[in-house]
C-alpha cells in the first residue's frame, strides 16, 4: 500500500513539473519585445595554417516584435576580435557578429564571444570558436 501511494505521488509530481515547463515555454512564446535567434553558436575552423584566414560570422535574426539592440560584444581574450551590427535590428531582419581569431598563435584553441542585448528570450548569448593552427611547411 505504501509503495502504491509513493508511486502515485511520484506520478502527480511529474505531471506538475511537465505542466510548469509547458507554461514557461508558452510564456516565452507570448513575450513581447526583441528576440534573438542564432543560426549557429559554434564555428570550428578545423586545422588552419599559421597566418591563415581566422574570420567567421555568426548570423542571427530578430524574431521578436521590437527592435533588437546589441549593447555589448566581448571576446574571452585579446587574440579574438569581434565586430557586430551596431544599428538596431528591426523585427524579422538579420544581423551579424563577425569574429577574427589571430592565427599567428600556433596550437589548438577554444574561445568564446559573449553577446549582450535587449532580447527578451536570451539577453546574453555565448558563441564559441575552436580549431588548431599549425606551422606552415616550407
Explain this structure to me?
- The protein has 138 residues and is α+β, with helices and mostly antiparallel strands.
- It contains 1 helix and 8 strands.
- It has one helix at residues 2-30, and strands at residues 36-38, 42-49, 55-62, 70-75, 80-84, 94-101, 107-117, 124-134.
- A hairpin with a 6-residue loop joins strand 7 and strand 8 (124-134).
- It starts with a helix and ends with a strand.
Write the layout of secondary structure elements.
Layout: H1 2-30, E1 36-38, E2 42-49, E3 55-62, E4 70-75, E5 80-84, E6 94-101, E7 107-117, E8 124-134
Parallel strand pairs: 2-8
Antiparallel strand pairs: 1-3, 3-6, 4-7, 5-6, 7-8
**Major β-sheet strand ordering:** 1-3-6-5
Secondary-structure element pattern, one letter each: HEEEEEEEE
Name the quaternary structure: single chain
Strand content: 35-45%
- Outline, from the CA principal axes? flat
Amino-to-carboxy terminus distance: 79 Å
User: Structural class, judged by helices and strands?
Assistant: alpha+beta
Number of helices: 1
Spans of 5+ residues with little confidence (pLDDT < 50)?
none
Helix percentage = 10-25%
Largest sheet: 4 strands, antiparallel
User: What Rg, in angstroms, do the CA atoms define?
Assistant: 22 Å
Descriptive keywords:
four-stranded antiparallel β-sheet; 138 residues; 21% helix; alpha+beta
Give the gist of this structure.
With 138 residues, the chain is α+β, with helices and mostly antiparallel strands. The protein has one helix at residues 2-30; strands at 36-38, 42-49, 55-62, 70-75, 80-84, 94-101, 107-117, 124-134.
Amino acid at each position: 500500500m505504501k509503495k502504491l501511494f509513493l508511486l502515485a505521488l511520484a506520478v502527480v509530481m511529474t505531471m506538475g513539473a511537465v505542466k510548469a515547463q509547458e507554461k514557461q515555454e508558452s510564456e516565452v512564446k507570448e513575450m513581447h519585445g526583441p528576440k534573438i535567434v542564432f543560426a549557429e553558436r559554434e564555428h570550428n575552423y578545423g586545422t588552419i595554417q599559421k597566418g591563415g584566414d581566422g574570420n567567421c560570422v555568426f548570423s542571427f535574426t530578430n524574431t521578436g516584435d521590437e527592435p533588437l539592440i546589441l549593447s555589448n560584444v566581448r571576446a574571452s581574450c585579446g587574440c579574438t576580435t569581434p565586430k557586430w551590427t551596431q544599428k538596431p535590428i528591426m523585427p524579422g531582419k538579420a544581423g551579424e557578429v563577425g569574429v577574427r581569431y589571430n592565427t599567428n598563435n600556433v596550437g589548438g584553441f577554444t574561445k568564446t564571444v559573449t553577446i549582450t542585448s535587449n532580447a527578451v528570450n536570451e539577453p546574453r548569448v555565448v558563441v564559441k570558436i575552436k580549431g588548431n593552427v599549425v606551422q606552415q611547411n616550407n
